[in-house]
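Minutes, structural biology subgroup

Action item carried over from last meeting: produce the structure token record for DNA-binding protein (Phormidesmis priestleyi). EB confirmed the sequence was re-checked against the source entry. Recorded below for completeness.
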Amino acid sequence: MKVLIDTNIVLDLLLEREPFVESAIALFEQIEYGKLIGYIAATTITNIFYIIRKTEGREVALAVTGRLLTGLQFCAVDRQTVETALRLNLKDFEDSVQLACATLAQLDGIVTRDRKDFAGSPLPIYSPTELLNQLQ
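Output recorded by EB:
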């Protein structure tokens, strides 16, 4: 199963945000074990770098970026992606870009804690717990 992982889930893992970190760890373990193929939008990596740099410093942000390169696949963000995102017209443009990436890459769903942000998605939307339960 190939899923796009929303930025909030990646940040839950990297920033160890309670009470969400445990489900994020379990999700990323499934990727390590090969039960899932995890994707992020290419723009997500720059957003994560920026957030981590602001909170933890540049060196930590560089280290985190390197870790993400080894564990996740990237969905391209190009003109077609942005045009698709504009047509999707979600409330948050970043979410529109992520949904466009997942749709164009023909992924099987999106994992997020903010299901409402993807209202009307043509792809299934899962919370980390829902997806983990489905994998059992």
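Discussion: The mean pLDDT is 94.
Next step: EB to file the record with the rest of the batch.
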